[in-house]
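Q: Could you fold this chain for me?
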Amino acid sequence: MYHVIMVTVERTQTGLRLEKNVLKVLKGLAEYLDVSLGDLVEGIVLHSFDGKVPFTPETLAKIEQLKAVYGLTLTSADAHRLTER
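A: Sure. Below is the predicted structure, expressed as structure tokens.
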């Protein structure tokens, strides 16, 4: 058995704009993982900052299902080419 050492942080509210289907997939994934949307985004960012993959193969499969449900066709290749209507 191991003990988890909790880290105290200060969080701030932010207004974050995301592509609508990206947000739908993130919300669906947060629900599936039983975490808040903020905790999910923090986890993704912290893993990315460390150069680590944030998801297990099982979670990636769930993401693919959610992308199909919500019509998300964007990929990382699109990240620097997005424009608004």
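A (continued): The chain has three helices and no strands.
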